[in-house]
Amino acid sequence: MLQQPSKKLVVVTGAAGYIGGMTCIQLKNKGYEVIGIDQRYNSHLDSFYDEFIQSDFAEYDALSLYKKVYPVAIIHCAGTSLVGPSFYNPYEYFNNNVSKTNNVLDFIVKNIPKTKFVFSSSASVYGNIHKDCTEDSPTNPVSPYGESKLMVEKLLKWYNESANLNYVSYRYFNAAGADANGRHGQEPEATHIIARLYDAGLNDKTFTLYGTDYDTRDGTCIRDYIHVKDIADAHIIAIDKSIQGIYNLGSFDGYSNYEILNKVQTMLDKKIITTISDKRKGDPSRLIADSTKFKYMANWVPQCSMDEIITDSHTWYTSETYSGLSASPRFTNSAAYA
Ligand SMILES: NC(=O)c1ccc[n+]([C@@H]2O[C@H](COP(=O)([O-])OP(=O)(O)OC[C@H]3O[C@@H](n4cnc5c(N)ncnc54)[C@H](O)[C@@H]3O)[C@@H](O)[C@H]2O)c1
Description:
The protein is of the alpha/beta class. The protein has a domain at 9-178 and 224-252 and 287-303: Rossmann fold (3-Layer(aba) Sandwich), CATH 3.40.50. The chain contains 12 helices and 14 strands. The chain has helices at residues 18-29, 60-69, 83-88, 90-111, 144-163, 193-203, 228-240, 257-268, 292-298, 306-317, 320-323, 329-332; strands at 6-13, 33-38, 51-54, 71-76, 116-122, 167-172, 174-176, 207-210, 222-223, 225-227, 245-249, 255-256, 274-277, 286-287. α6 packs across α10 (306-317). It is globular, with a radius of gyration of 19 Å. The structure holds nicotinamide-adenine-dinucleotide. Nicotinamide-adenine-dinucleotide (NAD) binds next to α1, α4, β5 and β7.
């Protein structure tokens, strides 16, 4: 077994997904050797992996690989990640997100203890909070999904205290946007608002707006959107700098659903047919990050504005790569207990 990590080699789990895929692109841009792991395969990302293993991230093939290559970091983007479906199938969320991650963390501290673990946590750990969240704000998840992220953060803390696990956990707010060159973005039938707006706008479907009676400036939910490229770059900062612990990753700003709707309509130069529906269970009215801690510790500010998010999304949703993709079953097959 190698005794020291390979300094320029990174493993990305969930590498066929939205954030994992963008992270592979940015890692390659920065000269890293990238090994992707995912239970699915997405051929449009092929050129951004040096190697790709189609496997569960916690099963034998993946664990053997971690040990064999001894990466400088494992960026753990794999996960089951929808708020609504997590109410129908909590087992899946606690098993896939928590139990399997626990197995990997135990494996890391015993076999590759110098590997840094970078975790995709979520703003959903805060629950229904009305002021800007700092990392010290109370956590109160309002869905099994959010709870699963918080549980992993507790695992990280205790593996750090008991076995010196070197980790960073990023609480992403709403990831949005796409690769500026149209090479990668969210897949068809993603439930993200920008994805649903483009689907409606480009295919003359109806866009459903969930809730217009929130206690916000225009009655619709307010969210903090961060460009997926900024998230990918933050992952690399976690490897390059000696930071540890939990960090919010947001844009310091918030946009309401109506504001996003208007921006996409302007970009498409078209009115999108919209219907108003009830609020979704577990959807807080306002989620904004205070990312001052990461800004201060890593000298970081998000590089991409909301206008770039919309422009890059437009490039992606009108690209040939996007139109060649089919819907991923993880977006459509959700409700085991329903
Ligand atoms: N997209 C967001 O706005 C957002 C916000 C906060 C947190 N996150 C978190 O970031 C991570 C990445 O999100 P995303 O938007 O890229 O999701 P995604 O669904 O596009 O990608 C997740 C990938 O993980 C893979 N995966 C799931 N379980 C696996 C397993 N057991 N073994 C191997 N592969 C597995 C899936 O096949 C998928 O390709 C998730 O953990 C999510 O909870 C996302």
